[in-house]
Amino acid sequence: MEPARRRFGILQLSKLALAVLWLGVFMVPPATAGRLADSTSPYLLLHADDEIDWHPWDTQALALARRENKPIFLSIGYASCHWCHAMARETFADGRAIKILNEHFISILVDREERPDLDNHFMAIMSAMLGYSGSPANFFLTPDGTPLFAAGYLGPEAEYGKQGFVAVATTMAGEWAGNRAEILADAADIREQMRAMAAPAPSGAARGETDPRAAAAEVWSSRFDKTYGGFGGGPKFPRPNVLSFLLHHGVRRGDQALLENVFWTLDRMAAGGVRDQLGGAFHRYAVDRFWQTPHFEIMLDENAILARLYLEAFQAVGEPRYAAVARAILDDLLARFRLDDGGFASALDSESEHRDGYYYTWSAQEVRSVLGEPLAARFIAAYLDEAHGLAGGRSVLRLLGEPERLLETQERLRDARSRLIAARAARVPPPRDDKRLTSWNALAVSAFAKAARVLDDERYLEAAKAGIGPLLDLAGTRLTHSSRAGKTAGAVFLDDYAFLVAALLDLYETDFDVRHLHDARRLMTETIGLFQAIPGEAFRFTPLGQTSGIPARTVLDEENIPSGNAAALIALHRLSLFGGGAALEKQAHAILTSLGRYLETSAPRATGLLGALYFRPDSAREIVIVGDTNDARTRLLLAEINKRLLIGTVVAAIAPGAPSDNADWLLLAGRPLLNGNPTAYVCKNRICDLPVDTPAALGARLDSLVHPKTAP
Questions:
Q1: Judging by DSSP bridges, how do beta strands 54-55 and 106-111 pair with one another?
Q2: pTM for the model
Q3: Pairing verdict, β 649-654 and 621-626
Q4: 10-197 and 621-706 share one CATH topology?
């Protein structure tokens, strides 16, 4: 966004912005009479007792700003964000900041996880103004919501050569009072720039024959850090969505060089400080190139996607360490994220006792006091670097030997790890953001369902079933995005519906309860009605009737997880493959066609969408197992399916003697047994190869699907 070049334009003010950092700690205060007291967001509840006259983002607050002709101060953060809470302790508690905000501004506080529509909108603006984005994100807006200034963390006073919040707010208030005409002229220019930014992505069929998957793979391959894994330098994010796409592309194309980069990255991440080496889950990202020192918060959505990624890696290459990493992530989610009703909390904080990362870090003396010698010496040699990658002068545990020896090292030091885990449990744990987000919980259900199949672990199936229950209870009328302590927030977004439909399909392919297919089709039909503004085109992020004071957007680009459009499009194709009806098949074809031009130009930004190409009718496969799923012979056939990474494939299981015509789900129509044994059919466009009834014969058939001679 090119700023207006007046003396109070964005160009001058943006120089006040400090570098954005991430991390967090929060403590939820008791509810008070403040405007934030009834929120479902622990982040907003943290500020319910503030002396700042905070408003949530709603029509009343926006109308008040217009009515009183006051500029808006908007702050966006989240409950596990360290620098959000540092700003709360240092800036929002400063008497001068309180006074100027209450007298001259309408102050609005937003939880980015609870309002991803606002977060997406303002993060794009922040990135355009400053060249980066992050939390906390702070904005001064005109009464009509036009941004004039953006910054990350701002202390009350100038520091590190940057001005402080009090000076910025004082200048803004003075300019609004004395030079409003110039500010409004700037705002008019900015609105024009915002309209250009909000222009829809190109739509329509692709113009050429280039495969966008190849183009995206080439771009991301060029960005690999061949030494330490991942992409680029620090800070370094895991990017599981990109790695999953590259894994799929490498497997389908038999591209060993690409796969080596993916596996190298997975090994370095799993062995690094970016993963909690005692608990199992991943921290949000590493501040360095080497995966040594993390930002310590742990998020549900990214860990669900990472667990699925490591399960896929295990299927692709058969290395037990990838299964072990996936299991450790999921067990950590069960231990520390699970809510009483079977759902999952959103995040764990980085701080405990106001010490960033303290819960996860160690000194050599602490290790010795727990383990004694010589066991401590062996553990320190394997995991504890006292010179590099420190956090607050303390060591972040990471595997110091070869990453490929992760499983061996864990086993060799099993007793030491158990004793350190017990010692760590005596520390004050990081606070937990216990709001339930429908979209993130659906991602967790999908991860547990896949783990139940791949690892043949009934615990994970039970976790998936328990996790889906509360989400479907919310779907009696219409889903909501966020809930906490019996309260639900009114907003809902595409991701909530799309990820839940995908979770139901994943659960069906695990326990083969056809009710999951019925629920998935019902919710997908609702998705089309709620989010599709133009028939046959991609979905809006917000429902058609939901107003929020910002422009409606169609989100196709990704950050660390696939977009709701990617999940919805793949789910449409999967439902079509099961025989969900001509209307869904028509939608799947039309939407994918309409995205052709976008994928030609923007494929690297939307790797999740590229997954839909594998589910096109000319590429996808359907596998049907006929047999009692409690029969050991049937389970052996299913095991052949589950141990392979079968991309663009749906799996159904039907009982012997099922009716030969199934009007509800064509793929589930009955088929004959071969020699009276449980039987497998491998099909394309519902035209099946000859059936097979042995694991070996099915395995040979499936191997041809893993590495097709001409990969589509």
A1: parallel
A2: 0.94
A3: parallel
A4: yes
Per-residue CA distances from 606 to 249, 253, 393, 594 (Å): 14, 20, 39, 15
For 398-485, where are the alpha helices, taking DSSP H only?
Answer: 406-412, 414-425, 438-455, 458-473
* Of 388, 375, 446, 458, the residue nearest 416 (C-alpha): 375
Upstream peptide bond of 235 is cis (omega within 30 degrees of 0): yes
For 319, which DSSP code?
Answer: -
Distance from the first to the final alpha carbon of the chain: 39
Q: Residue 82 in contact with residue 49, Cβ under 8 Å?
A: no
List the one residue out of 380, 379, 396, 399 whose CA is nearest residue 388: 396
Say how far apart CA 254 and CA 248 lie, in whole Å.
Answer: 10
Q: Two tokens at 133?
A: 């984005």
The CATH code for residues 10-197 is 3.40.30.10
Spans of all domains in the chain: 10-197, 351-431, 493-616, 621-706
The answer to whether residues 327 and 410 touch, using CB atoms and an 8 Å cutoff, is no
Check if the beta carbon of residue 507 is closer than 8 Å to that of residue 528.
no
Cα Rg of the chain, angstroms: 26
Q: Dihedrals φ, ψ of 133, to 5°?
A: -145, 165
Contact 514, 668 (CB under 8 A): yes
Report the distance separating Cα 308 and Cα 328, nearest Å.
Answer: 12
Residue 90, amino acid = E
Q: What is the mean pLDDT of each run of 10 residues along the chain (712 residues)?
A: 38 31 32 74 95 96 97 96 91 97 98 96 93 93 95 92 90 95 92 82 85 97 97 94 98 96 98 98 97 96 98 98 98 98 96 90 98 97 96 97 96 98 97 97 98 98 96 76 90 96 98 97 97 96 89 92 97 98 97 96 96 95 97 98 98 94 94 96 93 97 79 48
Give me 671's structure tokens.
């088929």
Instruction: Output the pLDDT for position 23.
Output: 26
Peptide bond into 374 cis (omega under 30): yes
- CATH fold label, 621-706: Glutaredoxin (3.40.30)
Residues with Cβ within 8 Å of residue 530, at least 6 apart in sequence:
478, 492, 497, 543, 544
On the 0-12 / 13-18 / 19+ scale of CB atoms within 10 A, 398 is buried
Residue pLDDT, tens place only, 446-490 = 999 999 999 999 999 999 999 999 998 765 567 999 999 889 887
